[in-house]
Amino acid sequence: MGNLKDTAAIALVDCNNFYVSSERAFNPKLAGIPVVVLSNNDGCVISRSNEAKAFIPMGAPLFQYEKVLEENEAEIFSSNYELYGDMSDRVMNSLQSFTPEVEIYSIDEAFLGLQETQKGFDYIGKEIQEKIFKWTNIPVGVGIAETKTLAKIANRIAKKSDKAKGVLDLYKSPYQDIALDRTAIGDVWGIGRASIKKLETINIKTALQFRDADLRWVKKNFTVVGGRTLLELRGVRCLPLELEPPPKESITCSRSFGELVTEYKPLQMAMSCYLMNAVEKMRHHRLAARSLTVFIETNKFQLDSFYANSYTYKSAYPTDNLFELQHWASESIKKIYRENFAYKKAGVILSGLILSESTTARLYEQPNPKHERLNKAIDEINKKFGKGTVHLAIAHMGKWQMKRERMSPRYTTRLDEIMKIH
DNA sequence: TCTGGGGTCCTAGGACCC
DNA sequence: TCTGGGGTCCTAGGACCC
């Protein structure tokens, strides 16, 4: 971390409407028209092209907007995470060619550490934008400033303003005060709904007002987190670039069902399926879990008949063995399942994760070596033939599976779907 | 009929210990 | 009788992020 001290500026590179842009990257017919991508289960709109932003809000439930979408001749896609994940890798790999100081912050965002050069940051920003588009077909915005929080603000303005054309350098800029004055407090990274409300009562409405507020008061009312945000707005770097991804603390797999589930059996099957996903990911990271949480819930929009519960199974012996975890899961579901409820959603959380090679030897119960070999075999097959090729017998399909009625081909990761390009 | 999923960090408060 | 006080660990829940 010491070598990062001389990083002059931080750039935030953020893909525009990332899921929509990924769809467009392989389908030129989608250019210039309204396009939206839906959440799992085709429930909500989670990515919109600029044309679609004019008439549909973020997070809009599809059923409320089907008519509007049709009137505007919008193209609608189910989410295709294999495609987006692969496009994300391409963008992130491309960014590495500009600097080794790349923090992958999310599927569509990265922070870059930039050194001062003669070209100037604005020039570098434009270069990044141009090359990423050339190499991946994904348009990005670039915001540059002293800190992550300021870079976020620069990025936001860069995307909104026609003049900036997606790149804005606010590093030691005389325009910083103007930028902060025009940024609503709720658009500051780290300031959410609850904080907006609290700040309203003392008449703080802009990023500039927050920056110039009393630090002690902010710390008292918004903890150290709020204090950091304030200092970052003043140009004091509190959030360093994290070049190595921090070790995972938990892995979740949860889904809403395509159809409501009342019976025990299909619930158990769904849970097995989610567990397999989660365990596959966990083993991929060479981790083992100390505890497993299972949760179920009915439709949260129907409060009169709502039931939700969870149970956490804990063991002194962390495990990465699917069969053992399957046992933990079934024990847990038994404890929280209630008859006569229509369940809408369920999930599993693996937590207390540690590196699997550091699991302590067991004094009494030895893990079954047959199981271990079988687990390894499953890893191999899934790696070779794609996720979820091998299932536990109990994890077979059912009506609870999610709807994905409008999915595009997985152009980049499935050989059999590559040829479907129009 | 239909309303996503996957994370982290922080704090307060209880249990427990000396 | 006037009911210490500090430390640590754990958990639940809030807040926020993409």
Could you walk me through the main structural features you see in this protein, from its secondary elements to its overall organization?
With 422 residues, the chain is an alpha+beta fold. The chain has a domain at 250-385: DNA polymerase, Y-family, little finger domain (Dna Ligase, domain 1, 2-Layer Sandwich), CATH 3.30.1490. The protein has 14 helices and 12 strands. It has helices at residues 18-25, 50-53, 62-71, 81-95, 121-136, 148-160, 176-181, 193-200, 207-211, 215-233, 264-284, 322-336, 369-385, 415-418; strands at residues 9-15, 35-38, 45-48, 75-77, 102-106, 109-114, 140-145, 167-169, 250-261, 287-298, 308-319, 343-355. It has a 5-stranded mixed β-sheet with strand order 5-6-1-7-8. A 4-stranded antiparallel β-sheet has the order 9-12-10-11, with helices on one face. Strand 2 and strand 3 form a beta hairpin. The longest helix is centred in the middle third of the chain and has 21 residues, at 264-284. The radius of gyration is 24 Å and the shape is globular. 35% of the residues are buried. It binds a DNA duplex (18 and 18 nucleotides) through helix 3, helix 8, helix 10, strand 9 and strand 12.
Instruction: Say what oligomer this is.
Output: single chain
Specify the CATH architecture of the domain at 250-385.
Answer: 2-Layer Sandwich
CATH class of the domain at 250-385: Alpha Beta
The helix-and-strand class reads: alpha+beta
Instruction: State the end-to-end distance.
Output: 48 Å
pLDDT < 50 stretches: none
- Number of helices in the DSSP assignment: 14
Mean pLDDT: 91
Spatially, the strands of the biggest sheet line up as 5-6-1-7-8
Major sheet attributes: 5 strands, mixed
Q: Report the β-strand fraction as a percent range.
A: 15-25%
Helix proportion: 25-40%
Question: From N to C, what is the helix and strand string?
Answer: EHEEHHEHEEHEHEHHHHEHEEHEHH
The total strand number stands at 12
User: Considering the protein shown, what is the CATH homologous superfamily of the domain at 250-385?
Assistant: DNA polymerase, Y-family, little finger domain
Radius of gyration: 24 Å
Molecular shape: globular
CATH topology of the domain at 250-385: Dna Ligase, domain 1
